[in-house]
Amino acid sequence: MDISQKRINIKIMKTIKTRFVEFTSYFFILLFCYASISKIMDFENFQIQIAQSPLLSAFSNVMSYGVLVIELAICILLIFERSRKIGLYSSFVLMVSFTVYIYMILNYSEFIPCSCGGILEKMDWKTHLIFNIATVIIAAFAVILYSDSKRQEIFKSVSLLLVLSIVSCSAIILMYRQSEFMIKKENNFTRRFLQHPITEEKRSNLQINSYYFAGISKDSVYLGTIPLHFY
Asked: For position 231, what pLDDT does the model report?
């Protein structure tokens, strides 16, 4: 292969890397802008849903504002070339945190809450988890491609991504443990309602709808009606 062909191949590879980083940045800008705007438009409901989270109930007020600020800040970082690398790292950290949060809900939560709405409101939690994992991988690739092609620079980027992943996972786990302690031991008057507190075990057709509660014993419930008839 001659020198001119090598230069062309190198130029093509640089173009592909640049386009991938740009498209990834645009993707996260759209994702976070839409997600934050949808939360702002229904902010009261968003706060209630965070408060009913089985993992972060104690931090609902801080989290509701914090998530919005972080998402909008990342969008601004991704817009400008000088801050784009920081924005990609921030996107990676945020999506890792969301992924760990969903994983803990599916595997360690007392109950699975309803979806928080927004752009992913039609997804169930498992699909949401898969989507988040995919975005984490995309963000990681964009960060690596944004770095220089030298092995040393790539190694630094990968190492930093691993460190940020560990920090993000640890932060979510610590917040979960602290939230559970505050809710159960140092109650801050945040009530958490279970999604399915009553489970139906048996159903019986009473034939008429005029029964009223007449009494209860150890293992029986008594209903009365007029004329006098006990069931």
From this structure: 46
